[in-house]
Write a structure and sequence with these properties.
The protein is α+β, with helices and mostly antiparallel strands. Helices cover about 35% and strands about 25% of the residues. Strand 2 and strand 3 form a beta hairpin.
């Protein structure tokens, strides 16, 4: 059974030139799931990337405070999306 899940949130930074660790962590985590997993900048209206590709995630180029949507489609979509949201939440502590 295939399922689609999309969740959006604001974050401090991911994929920028100075932030390679979260992009790599996202790609490694996304690769664990058979579902298609995407990151979409600007709350779903901006560039989108295959979350399983470090280069694609970095090319999304989302900036500080920007809304990003995680979209997962497939049999383990919920777990895939929750995993990526967890990684993004951990690196997106505003004010820390």
């Amino acid at each position: 059974m295939s399922r689609e899940l999309a969740a959006g949130f604001s974050f401090v930074s991911v994929g920028g030139a100075d932030d390679p660790v979260p992009a790599g962590a996202l790609a490694v985590a996304a690769a664990q799931f058979p579902s298609t997993v995407q990151l979409i900048a600007a709350g779903g209206a901006g560039p989108q990337a295959d979350a399983k590709s470090v280069l694609a995630v970095r090319q999304v180029g989302a900036s500080s405070g920007q809304q990003v949507t995680v979209r997962a489609i497939g049999p383990d979509a919920e777990k895939a999306a929750q995993t990526l949201i967890g990684i993004l939440s951990a690196v997106s502590k505003v004010g820390d």
